Amino acid sequence: MNLDVAFAPLIPLIPLIALGVAGAVVAALCVLGRTRGAWLRAGAIACLLLALANPSFTREDRETLTNILPVVVDRSGSQTLDGRGAQTDEVRRQVEARLQGLPNTEVRWIEAGQDGTSADGTELFAALRNALADVPPERVAGALFVTDGVVHDAPADARDLGFAAPVHTLVTGRPDERDRRVALTLSPRFGIVGQTQRVGFRVHETGFQGGRPVPVVVRRDGEEIERFEAFPGEETTFDAPISHAGVNFIEIEAETAPGEITAVNNRAVLPIDGVREKLRVLLVSGEPHAGERTWRNLLKADASVDLVHFTILRPPDKQDGTPINELSLIAFPTRELFAQKIDEFDLIIFDRYARQGILPIIYFENIARYVRNGGAVLVASGPDYAEPGSLFETPLAQVLPAEPMGGVLERAFKAELSPVGRKHPVTRGLPGSETTPPSWAPWFRMVDSRMHEGESVLNGPDERPLLVLAREEKGRVALLLSDHAWLWARGFDGGGPHVDLLRRLSHWLMQEPDLEEEALRAKATGRTIVFERQTLKDEAAPVEVTLPSGATRRIELTEAEPGLWRGELETPELGLHRAVDGTFSTLVNVGPPNPREFTEVTSTAARMTAIANATGGSVRRVVADAGDDVSVPRVVQVAAGARAFGSDWIGVRQADASVVRGIGILPVFAGVLGLLLLLGAFAAAWAREGR
Predict the structure, then answer these.
(1) Residue 366 carries which DSSP code?
(2) 490 FRET partner, CA 20 to 30 A, in 130, 213, 235, 400?
(3) Coil, strand or helix: which one is 594?
(4) Among candidates 480, 484, 469, 479, which has minimal Cα distance to 414?
(5) Taking the complete model, does pTM exceed 0.85, yes or no?
(6) Nearest to 398, CA basis, from 361, 356, 433
(7) Helix or strand run (H / E) with residue 249
(8) What's the rounded Cα separation, in Å, for the pair 264 and 597?
């Protein structure tokens, strides 16, 4: 219970002050003039002023509130290393015993980091703020942390805590820990496919002596590409080759040293996005025809394609008497294109091309060799493929997957997906293919042919091959046995998916990774990894996933659509995951490539020392230099501002927070009592003056 005096003036404060000053002057003049009854008159004036000030006695009934003591227990990834988890459990058990006898104190246990490694590392103070969101600052008696000291959100200013009380830390781990880690110093994000990027790193060692060179292995997408030695503390650089479009995972792994607390941070991962330069396409149209501009418009609309297009308007056998010096035609640079610069092209398209004496036979040998070495050729044929002078009568026939039978079918038909075509990424899911027959416009001409290799993904009448795809050593070949694809582009009878088909076809030929017919892919969204197995087979093998810690998971795949199988994994870890299915392997990164939680894992008191000093708290290890025994200091209550730690004890503030349960008010000059006081004061002054 608290007693106090409160004032509620009956008149405004300024007039009350003026009356007080005037009353004081009158009382002073009476006293100095030795007027009879001067002191009684001064008392009467004072009573009048007090009555106007309206004083009252107040009584507050208060209930003392309990102190709140948060204990934050670090359960992050680094706390699982080197027996720290067992130490943490023992520290909690002992702290619970120490706090049982602490009077008027509510202990709040906060388990932080249990859901896995945070992308921003160990965030103990964020967990503390969340737990104390409903607690007034004056009720907080202090804070106690049980951690290995690897904390990434310790505030630089104690005022950011939101309360004024000592912060103590009990550090798990051993003082003589040894660890080796790899830190990136030069980490480019992008690279040109076929070129290299300079990568830099540094090997750091804690608890080692001597500084001997450390063996280091560099891998790209899981395959070793380089091996060398690096000196601890010195920057080492190397050139990483960018082999393909998309993410190229560069791994730098240092040899594990004896006695290390973990090898997780011996590896640094750098994802570099491979970006293609302009894709160079050579389009050769054998003659002007209705569908000639379909290919040109499609390729020119693709910003990633650099197109070189030639149309043969005047073959050598055409003689019209026009002098050569008056012709405005550009001579076809056959030697430059097919002998000197052929390897600079990513794709060569022959559109309605037949032998016309323009390309010597030896150039077709060059084209076949270009395909075997990794190039791509597309033959979009018409009747020219079945007539004398066909490309199949050249050395290019060595890589062409279908042989013309000498006939051309001239009747309306709708191209249909073959069983393989329903699974192949070039034709799978083409708009309109979901119905039978497909809901796209018919074509009216195709070359009758016989396949001898490759796969037909589109069929014509009587299941004849219409679009044939084939691989030839390192390169690829496609044969489109109709010249009526332009009908779809012109919107004839509703048109068809010419853009989807022809664009996918050209990018498959240029070995776009997303269009591989046999591939294993993985994509991470949050903690969920989706595995996709593209295959032309009737089943897909399970995927074995290796987590960053070395643990493994087995994922069964189910068919999501023809040719595409999927499976999911909710991973408990951040970092680089490896997936293999016996044939293919892939890598996928969850969260940051190198989580902060495992960047530096040796236990330390340094990160919590500043906040402990600023709040009057302490930082101490629970395991001595020798031995495995865990020792926890006593916990005692101390007054605010008093020293909060000793050699074998730590202190928490004894908060004085309370809540008012009731208030009583007794006015002094209200009612009969106030009237009697005033009348008595003035009557006494009058009586003394009258004598």
Answers:
(1) H
(2) 400
(3) coil
(4) 484
(5) no
(6) 361
(7) strand 246-254
(8) 11
